[in-house]
Amino acid sequence: MQNRKVRIAGTGKYMPKRRVSDMEMDAVLGVPEGWVRKKTNVLERYFIEDETASQMGAKAAYAALEAAGLTFADVDCLVCTSGTAEQPIPCTAALIQEAMGQRHSGVPAFDINSTCLSFVAGLDLMSYMVAAGRYRHVLLVATEVASKGLNWRHKESAALFGDGAAAAVIGPAGAGQPSQIVFAAMETYSAGAHLSEIRGGGSGMHAAAYAEHTADDYLFDMRGDELFRMASQKLPQFLNRLLAGAGCGLDGIKLVIPHQGSAMAMRLLARRLGIPGERLLCITPNHGNTIAASIPMGLHEAIRGGLIERGDRVLLLGTSAGLSLGGVVLDY
After folding, report:
1. Could you report the per-residue pLDDT of 56-75, keeping only the tens digit for each?
2. CATH annotation of 180-331
3. Among 199, 257, 276, 301, fewest CB within 10 Å belongs to which?
């Protein structure tokens, strides 16, 4: 069963209080003025000050519930779909429930982590739970704090990232409603597993052994050129398989909402994939790369900006560390 009569009932977003311009990033990275804008096309991004990932997630979650016309009492399951965790244990979803003031609610809360594709994976998996009647309304929350794990010596990758949170409420589509999940797919090629990683912090390189390793082992490390080459080789055929499964071509897609890795990479891939520029949503310039929050942020902005209406066919598409490729074709 691929087709699921499940709809996105509401979306929400939260950006941290601190706005960081490209000129500020130039100064932090010690590069000439204009370097960050030229390299990344990120004009501004947001970094946390006193906010936590769970607090940001809670704000985005309540915004999504308000947009859906629901309250937390209507939520049957809370899933955090993030690539970064607030702490190793417990799961971030439990901390989001706490930050929402729902400590005694009993609503099940757990995480789904496929790094930048976490929201796509969560939407795919949990829509089956809604379609099967296991849950009625599921709250998906992607909340990311990239700024704490950046390696500032890796200037090109550090210049890309921002913090923030986005959320979506999914539920059953009613009789006569056009909304549905049409088709979804994911493929992982672990030949690229070490092209984008944080090596330290898990059982392989535990935090207790920090003194035995270098600080870089506990910071984000990405071999961007190699990762892009691998993704650009794999994505065209993956997209063909995804669209074939959905029974449509790119001409049947109203809007493509990609993972906002970098504006330059998105433009290059769009040309390689044959996606017309006017149908590709790019929010990188004023958000940066917000990891798993980038796709639901794009979805939120598309809905808020009137770029899509109920019944429009939308493609969520991205890559993530792994290397994984993933996408969902849905009728909003």
Report:
1. 999 999 999 999 999 999 99
2. 3.40.47.10
3. 276
